[in-house]
Amino acid sequence: MKKRYFMGIDMAKATFDFCLLSSAGACRWRGRFCNDARGIERFLAQLRARGWKLSQIHFALEATGVYGKALIAALHRADLAVSVLNPAQVKYFAFSVLRRTKNDRVDAEIIARFCRERKPLATRPLRPIEEQLKVLA
Prior knowledge:
The chain is of the alpha/beta class and 137 residues long. It has one domain: Ribonuclease H-like superfamily/Ribonuclease H (Nucleotidyltransferase, domain 5). The protein is built from five helices and five strands; from the N terminus they run E-E-E-H-E-H-E-H-H-H. Strands 3-2-1-4-5 form a five-stranded mixed beta sheet. The longest helix is centred in the last third of the chain and has 15 residues, at 104-118. The radius of gyration is 14 Å and the shape is globular. It starts with a strand and ends with a helix.
């Protein structure tokens, strides 16, 4: 299914910032939620309450170790398209669009722009054995 919206998410230990872009590149919604189970549930509930069909959104976030694990799992459980990106790709994409400012709000927008322009493949959920191997690596 062709995605109509692109959600960039910048993860941190306690919070995550997000930016939702339309396919034309207009910012439709941005904000911050707590990076815990309750915050993730509120985030998804508010997306639904605002009338967006979650299946039309491509979610993207940088690989940040354990910080994004709960959100990625929640998105996978909801059967949504989520891409876990290499932070170096996003960093150099930001340089290519002349963005040198570095803060969570700007990072979320850059991730959304990267997702909109590059259309990365969605990441599949890891099987339990793959999760165990990843921890060992």
